[in-house]
Amino acid sequence: MKKYSITQITRHIIQLLSFILFPGLFILTWNAISSIYRAILEGTFTLSSMMSPILILIAVIPITIFLGRFFCGYICAFGSMQEFLNYLGTKLKIKNIKINPNLDKKLKYIKYILIIIFVMLWTFNITIDAKLSPWNVFGVYSSYKGWSDFSMLLTFGGLLLLLIIISSLFVERVFCRYFCPLGAIFSLISKPRIYKIKKDSTECVNCDLCTKKCPMGIDVDEETSAHGKVISSECVDCFKCIDTCKPKALYINPKQTVSGIVVAAIILGIYCAGTMTPNTSNSGEQLLQNSLTQGKYTDGTYTGSGEGYRGTVTVEVKVSDRNISSITVQSYQDDEPFFDKAQNTIINEIISNQSTDVDVVSGATYSSNGIIEAVSDALGVSFTNPNDQMENERGHGGGHRHRME
Question: Which domains are delineated in the chain?
Answer without folding.
Answer: 6-195+253-275 (no CATH), 287-404 (3.90.1010)
